[in-house]
Structures are given as C-alpha cells and as structure tokens.
Amino acid sequence: MMLKTLFMSSALIAATATTAAAQQLSVVCSSEQDHCDLVANEFRAASGADISLIRKSTGETLAQIRAESGNPKIDVWFAGTGDPHMIAAEENLTEASGADTTNLLGWAKNMAEITDGKAIGVYAGALGIGYNAELLKEKGLKAPACWKDLADPAYRGEIQVSNPNSSGTAYTEIATLVQLFGEDEAFRLLAEIGKNVNQYTKSGSAPVKAAARGESVFAIGFMANMVQQKNSGFPLEIVAPCEGTGYEVGAVSMVKGTKNTATAKRFIDFVLSPDGQKLGAQAQSYQTPSNLNTPVPPEVGNLSSVKLIDYDFATYGSSKTREKLLARWDAEVKSAGGAIEQ
C-alpha cells in the first residue's frame, strides 16, 4: 500500500509539473514597455499562465531568434514592425499558429497570407515627422512639410532617428523613401538628411521622446508614438510628409520549435482579440487595431486621412532586400554626418 501511495504521489507530482510547464510562456515584445507589460498582465490574469516578457527592438529580436534556431528560448514574438517578422517567417524561424483571421482587417490578413500564417497583423501605424514647436520657434527654424525638407542645411544637428540595424522604425523609413523616390535618389536624400542627424538610437521610439523633451528639434518615427507624447502635454507637432509615407503593420509570430505551443497559441488568439487589442490604447499606444470589433478611441486617428504609399511588404519584408538596403545604409548614410550612436 505504501509503495502504491508513493507511486501515485510521484505520478501526481509529475503530472502537475507537466501542466505547469505547459502553462509557461516566454514572450519578446517590440512595442512600448507600458503596452508590453499591460498585455502580459492581462493575459496572465485571464489564462493563469506563467508568462515571462522582455522588451526588445525588432532587429535585436530577429538576431536572437536566428542565433537560437533549433533551441529557442522565445515562444512568441509580439509587436514591432512586420518586416522583420516576415523575414523570420521566410527563414523558417517561425511557424503558423492556426489563429482565426476572419475578423481582421485586410492588411492584417495580407500579412498572414504572405507568410503562410506565420506572422499576423495586430496593428498598423503611419510613419511621420515630429518636431518640438517651442524649440523650433526658439531656434528660428521653419517647420517641415515634406521628407525632402529634412535635408535643409538649417537643420544641421537637429534631427534624431533610430538605427535601422536595430530598429524596424528606421528600416521602414528607408523602405518608404526607396518606394517613393527610387533607390539611388532615396539614398542621396538619406545621406543629406544624415548630415543633419545628431544621434542614431537603438529604439525606434527614442527620437520621438527626445524631441518631446526638447533634446532634439526633429524626430522621425511612428505617428502613434508622437500622439502619445503630444497627449501627455509635450509641445510636439506631427507632420504627415507631403510626398506620402509608409506604415508599419505590427505583427505577432510563434517561434518554431517552441515547447509551449498550446499556451503560445492562446496568447496569439488573445492579442488578436478585441480584449487584447484594446489594451494598446489603454497603454497610450495609439496604433490602428487589426480586429474589426476592437473599440477605437479618437486618439488613434484615421489612417485614411494620411497619404499612404502602397507599401510592398512582400519585397521589403524579404531577407535579401533588407540586407542589401542595410549594407548600403551602413556604407553611404551612417557616416554622412557627425551623428553618434546610442
């Protein structure tokens, strides 16, 4: 009887351990920290899962997933620009979660179709220019209206933007200008703008925060981050460039080889649901949600009011294109001025 009881207790402990392991989840989030934390906390409360979450830029996350291929430490990659998610899908580093996309907007479904379900759109946000109105007036500068205005020598040392090797925001800028002007003209413009850049940051949202605080006059970044700073009381003005602009489709992907597949799928279903997506606005991340049934507060704005380009995600979300453009940026733009790297 004692041996039988001991055997049963051991089996129960093993079963409990297996259940606990199945409820563990490691997530890398490439949105703003407040957004990441709120999503993690709400999913933990709703599911009972033991979720571990860390925030990293998209370039850093892609590099980690590549390095850990075959023995992943990450189960799910949540948020951040879609291009690196698509590259991870192309390189077979992620796998389809089987999530239901019925209620998602077309651009979110399009990403899922391009990647065979490996990356699914969670939100969208347009790229723009922000400037500190008080600092602009103090320095006697004219507000920009177009991308080409950022090449004005009067702006020398006054622009901050992120580094495209680590930041999906800056890569979206490169891809946008290439699609607007053609590759050679785009890189000439990027080099001219580069002469005016004071710092290349690791994070895509850092330049917007710097401009809001008056540490730089101008910032290139996503308008959703600018709205957040403006609504917080900073003197930040937002410009949708006259030539047109690109946009991000923030995505979610399940890493190939995860041992926590069931919980990973539950997390993906959650962030694609209205309950999961409404958390963005609650955390002052004002992107357009992908689920048709997600309530959209007025701060989010309307993407249809911005002159958007027909962004070619299939081309600019490929490894070959990204590597070529980043190599050219390193050679022709990075050293164009006296900018420092964060």
Description:
This protein is globular. Helices cover 45% and strands 18% of the residues. With 342 residues, the protein is of the alpha/beta class. The model is unreliable at 1-21 (pLDDT under 50). The chain has helices at 2-22, 33-47, 58-67, 82-90, 106-114, 133-139, 168-181, 183-194, 206-213, 223-231, 261-272, 274-282, 313-316, 319-332; strands at residues 24-29, 50-55, 76-78, 94-95, 119-132, 159-162, 197-201, 218-222, 236-239, 247-255, 288-289, 340-341. The longest helix has 21 residues, at 2-22.
The backbone outline, from C-alpha atoms, is globular
Percent of residues in β-strands: 15-25%
Helix content: 40-55%
Q: Strand count, sense and closure of the main sheet?
A: 12 strands, mixed
Strands, count? 12
Euclidean distance between termini CA atoms: 66 Å
Mean pLDDT: 92
Q: Extract low-pLDDT stretches.
A: 1-21
Q: H/E series, N to C?
A: HEHEHEHEHEHEHHEHEHEEHHEHHE
Q: Mind telling me the C-alpha Rg? A: 22 Å
Number of helices: 14
Multimerization state: single chain
Structural class: alpha/beta
Structure characteristics:
disordered N terminus; 12-stranded mixed β-sheet; alpha/beta; globular; 342 residues; single chain
Layout of helices and strands:
Layout lengths: L1 H21 L1 E6 L3 H15 L2 E6 L2 H10 L8 E3 L3 H9 L3 E2 L10 H9 L4 E14 H7 L19 E4 L5 H14 L1 H12 L2 E5 L4 H8 L4 E5 H9 L4 E4 L7 E9 L5 H12 L1 H9 L5 E2 L23 H4 L2 H14 L7 E2 L1
Helix pairs in contact: 2-12, 3-4, 7-8
